[in-house]
Automatic annotation (TrEMBL):
Annotated SUPFAM superfamilies: Prokaryotic SH3-related domain (SSF82057), Zinc beta-ribbon (SSF57783)
Family under the similarity heading: Belongs to the YjdM family.
Ranges of residues in domain Protein YjdM N-terminal: 5-33
Alphabetized PANTHER family for the sequence: PROTEIN YJDM, PROTEIN YJDM-RELATED
Protein name, per record: Alkylphosphonate utilization protein
All residue ranges annotated as the Protein YjdM C-terminal domain in the record: 50-119
Species lineage: Bacteria, Bacillati, Actinomycetota, Actinomycetes, Kitasatosporales
Amino acid sequence: MTENLPPCPKCSCAYTYEMNTLVVCPECAHEWSLADSTAEEADGSGERVVRDSVGNVLQDGDSVVVVKALKVKGHPTGIKAGTKVRGIRLVDGVDGHDIDCRIDGFGAMQLKSSVVKKA
C-alpha cells in the first residue's frame, strides 16, 4: 500500500485510498488515476489533462475512435465500437463526460474519455 497518497482534487480530503489502479476519496466518492495526478504535479501548470482509455493525452480538434459499444437514450441502436469521431472539444462536463462531439447519425453529445482512444 502506498503511503503519501495525494489529497482529493475536488474536496481536498486527506483520507484517500487506492483501489486497483485508481485513487478514491471516501468523502465525495471522486475517483482518479494516480498516474494522472503525478503527471499534473510534474507539469506544474495546473491545467487539466484529459487522457483516453489507453493513456494518450487528448486535445481539442483530435479524432478519436469509440472502443466500447454505447447505448444511447432515445435511439433504437447504440454507437458501435470502432465509430470514428472527428473534431472533439474538451469540456468540464457532468459525471465525467469530458468530450463534446458530433457523431454522424446521432448528433451532438458528450462522451467519457474512458470509452475512446486517439485515432
